[in-house]
Amino acid sequence: MASRAPAWWQDRGLAAVLLRPLSVLFGLIAWLRRWLHRCGVLRVERLAVPVVVVGNIAVGGSGKTPVVAWLVERLREAGHRPGIVSRGYGGKVEGVAMVPRDGDPDIYGDEPVLLARLTGCPVAVGRDRPGAARELLRMSPHCDVLIADDGMQHYPLGRDIEVAVVDEAVLGNRWLLPAGPLREPLSRLREVDVVIAHGQMSAALASLLEGQAVFSMKLMGGRLRALRDPARELDAGTLRGRPVHAVAGIGRPQRFFDQLGALGLDVVPHAFPDHHRFVATDLAFPAGEPIVMTSKDAVKCAAFAPDDCWEFPVSAQIDPGAAERIVEKLKNGPPAA
User: What is the H or E stretch that residue 36 is in?
Assistant: First the structure.
């Protein structure tokens, strides 16, 4: 059964109000920590190559992984040789490590392994992200730009460009943890270089971001890939008329279920916690009923998936102006001190 975000994150009811003092304290600590890094009291490590941070301000899935894969391709088109640094959440790496393309998600984390396979570029993981970045550059000295996956709040790693991915559905009551889902206040979005909006924005959020560089994003997909034989693909519509077990261990499983439903599939949803460690019994559904899952889950299930188990790959479609703005900022370099 999937773990759910606390109910009080969705409104400003009694539970959220009672937690509000802790939320204020959390905000003060987060602000102080960021200020200490900015002032140089706490160390910020600048690397020999520029760093583009891709992150968000809320707990929960907003679509960062497809954005990182999209950004890798756009940077390559502009002549860059990118690498990726990640925390490796859900993995077991002690210290820092490079992620093999055939790496075990239980060791390196599901998202880093997926990114290594999707992009083919060097990926390093570690709680110490500056250390992971140094290791990546040591092992892959040809890299001339690093993408820090989910690194907005990791201030010890210096950054040249910040890209915030915003899915308004996960912003909840707009309060900070633990009274709400926010890691940083909404006003933080006015300070980043690029905001990528996953889905529609309300008038209130659009007003807050007026004058900011905001670009829309959609996740697109329509083909399925067999987990047991990745060379075998079929159109998702082929499964119409049969119960389809949709498996998702991601931050927002309902978005995945809705996407399959929009393709005309008869979806039987199975939501698991984000970064869930799947076992064979999780996929024990009636014979003859196909299973469809996200790419993030597929990397963890390929070894024991039944024959009729399919990955649903998606790609981010983002307004071209976002890539143009990022590439231009990299070309111009950091502002003079």
Answer: helix 14-38
Q: For 186, which DSSP code?
A: G
Residue of 110, 118, 76 lying closest to 92 (CA atoms): 110
Give tens-digit pLDDT for 162-186: 999 999 989 999 999 999 999 999 9
Q: Confirm if 310 and 232 have CB atoms less than 8 A apart.
A: no
Which one-letter amino acid corresponds to residue 61? G
pTM of this structure: 0.93
Q: How many Å is the Cα radius of gyration of the chain?
A: 20
Encode pLDDT of 61-83 as tens digits.
Answer: 788 999 999 999 999 999 999 99
pLDDT band at 1; cut points 50, 70, 90: very low
Closest Cα partner for 301 from 223, 226, 224?
Answer: 226
Label the pairing between strands 243-248 and 291-294: parallel
Question: Which residues 6+ apart lie within 8 Å of 172 measured at CB?
Answer: 5, 9, 10, 58, 180, 181, 182
- In this predicted structure, what is the pLDDT of residue 335? 52
Helix (H, G, I), strand (E, B) or coil at 82: strand
